[in-house]
Amino acid sequence: MNDALDIAVLVSEGRNPTSGAPRAARADVAALALAGRLTKRRVTVLHAGDARSPALADYLAYGAERIEVLKAEADDDVLPLLVDRAAAFDLIITGARAEKGAGSGVLPYALAKALERPVVANVLLAERSSERGLIATQYLPKGARRAISIDAPAVIAVHANACAGRGYAYARRLNGEIVEQNAPPAKTAPAWPGWTVTPAMRPPRKLAPVVEKDGFTRMRDAIEPKAKGGVVAFEGSSVDKAQVILNYLRQHRLVEF
Question: Which of 95, 53, 45, 94 is nearest to 74 (CA)?
Answer without folding.
Answer: 53
